[in-house]
Amino acid sequence: MTLDPITLTVIQAGLQQVCDEMDLAFSRAAFSPVIAEANDRSDGIYAATDGALIAQGAAGLPVFVGTMQYSTRVLIEMIAAGEVAAPIPGDIYIVNDPYLGGTHLMDVRFAKPFYRDGEIFCWLSNTGHWPDTGGAVPGGFSASATAVEQEGLRLPPVKLFKQDVMDKEIFAIIQSNIRVADQRIGDVQAQAGALRVGESRLSALLDRYGDSTVSDAIDQLHQRAEDQMRSSLQNIPKGTYTSTAFVDSDGVINAPLTIALSVTKSDDGLTFDFTDSSRPCLGPMNSVKATTHSAVYLAMRHIFPDVPMNAGAFAPFTLTGIEDTFLDAKYPRPVSGCAAEVSQRIAEAVFAALVKAIPEKVTAAPAGTSGNFALGGFDPARNLNYVMYQISGGGYGGNAHHDGLSNGCSTIGISKAPPIEIMEQAYPVLYRHYALHEGSGGAGEHRGGFGLDYEVELRRGEAKASFVMDHGRFGPQGARGGCDGEVNEVTVYREGVPYTPEHFSKEQDIPLAAGDRVHVQTPGGGGYGDPLERAPHLVAEDIRLGRYTIQQAKNLFGVVITSSFEVDSAATSTLRKEKRATAK
To answer: HSE of 417 in the Cβ direction (CA atoms, 13 Å)?
Structure first.
């Protein structure tokens, strides 16, 4: 049955609203700041037959689009094969195994079958970032792990809830293998409660419009998303576009990893070939297949944001060449940097390739790191152990129309840094400053946005700091003549003595005592277009606001600024002519 456009649109909005309400319920009820404040979670609806994405919350992390779809499909297949116990109403499965459609072990997925008239109509699923799942270091971000067991507890799909009752034995096993275990019950109940909210809201939608009508709408929305994406791809000229992106190191061997991408446009869609990328690495910067696919999907979502979010939008994309590379990790390869870092390098490679084909639609590279900083220790004032997890933003790349956003969230999602007031209240830390990373935006006709500059001091007790970040060796790529953004920098001050990690922004178990500090400066976005074409008055405004120095204005943009922040037009014209002549 072909539905009229109004009914179709209303049902589409209704499905989206179900997911949005699950997101909201999850964040409001969660205990951990990384979920409750940073919103590092996602909820969605998935097809009963193959796990294909039906709808996802607008406030959910885009990187979970492909992984949750893949994970749900694997769960369905394992149930059909008898490898996992078959569901009955009220069951909720838990899984975080990265090789079964996941990311890293801290991203824990719940899946609940949704029944109508005794049959599974669809699956409701969500993912939440738990602040700790055990392993060698607090927070799970082991910068030098060489096996997944060192990163935390790996869970295959098992029923954590059976007929709406939590299995206390399974939960006891989980609690026995993670830090600050007493706090996890709040996140677990919030995650399960979000799925029950979705169950209630989806039932109301089906009761209103009828199961068959909603099923028909889902099929038609899937096809329309595919048609819309194929139509959008018509703007890309046929041909092959190449790019290269780099991961600083794997955290064990201090040498860069290469993502070599070739994107081919044909009548059938886009083929993303990663054949010449680096081999699987020893350290934790491997990506699993599901995350690699999801990284490509989210990059295309950035480029064509108007295409509806469901499985149909991904149909025109084919990925090849990831076998035997670090983009298709197999057990027991460590993967803690998988979703948070490697996925963003994959997206950067997509941007760098397609900006050559559709420059009006694609930006220069964004900061491309989640700034994963974990601090685990004991607070003597509260007599409590804790695990603090900090994510942070960075600059977005400039584009054909305007400058990049400053201190934006990471490429992979919409998670925001938790408010420093919340962090200071929950943990024994003091933020000595929290500001823009001035000068970090790559120069261009449209400059990159600026990263974040913050410093955290441990107020009492002892703790260990761990980092898994990136873009410390190479800054985010500029586009069409724009300059790269500034790199990520981490400096640890112990007893006032500065220390910089060998792997730039990857290290684990750095001991801290009261008064020690951690200083992080996240990358700025890449610049877009020739910096000598930037409007001089925009450069002057950046100087006035302290974003660049007067000397940087000369060196980067060829603009001469007076001490009163005015443009010296004659001197600027002369300097730019000299720079252009030198460049030739």
So the answer is: 24
Q: Is 461 within 8 Å of 379 (Cβ atoms)?
A: yes
Strands 517-521 and 489-494: what pairing? antiparallel
Give the whole-angstrom CA distance, residue 152 versus residue 155.
Answer: 10
Contact assessment for residue 552 and residue 534, using Cβ atoms and an 8 Å cutoff: no
Q: State the Cα–Cα distance between residues 51 and 73, nearest whole angstrom.
A: 4
Of the candidates 266, 523, 499, the one whose C-alpha atom is nearest the C-alpha of residue 393 is 523
SS3 labels along 286-319 = CCCHHHHHHHHHHHHHHHCCCCCCCHHHHCCEEE
Which helix (H) or strand (E) segment holds residue 433: the answer is strand 429-437
Cα separation, 270 vs 313, whole angstroms: 12
Under 8 Å between Cβ of 98 and 335: yes
For 201: left if phi > 0, alpha if psi spans -120 to 50, otherwise beta; the answer is alpha
What SS3 state is found at 178? Answer: coil
Phi first, then psi: give them for residue 477, nearest 5 degrees.
-65, 135
For residues 19-52, b (16+ Cβ closer than 10 Å) or e, as one string? bbbbbbbbbebbbbbbbbbbbbbbbbbbbbeebb
User: What pLDDT is recorded for position 417?
Assistant: 84
Question: Each residue of 62-121: pLDDT tens digit?
Answer: 888 789 999 999 999 999 999 999 999 999 999 999 999 999 999 999 999 999 999 999
Beta strands 317-320 and 269-273 are parallel
Give the sheet arrangement for strand 372-379, strand by strand: 384-390, 372-379, 462-468, 506-513
All residues at 6 or more sequence positions from 23 whose CB lies less than 8 Å from its CB, including other chains: 39, 41, 42, 43, 57, 58, 59, 60, 194
Q: Give yes or no for a contact between 531 and 479, defined as CB atoms under 8 angstroms apart.
A: no
Between the alpha carbon of residue 538 and those of residues 53, 116, 251, the distances in Å are 43, 59, 40
Bond from prior residue into 332 cis (ω within 30 degrees of 0): yes
Q: In angstroms, rounded to a whole number, what is the distance separating the alpha carbons of residues 502 and 510? A: 12
At residue 498, the pLDDT reads: 98
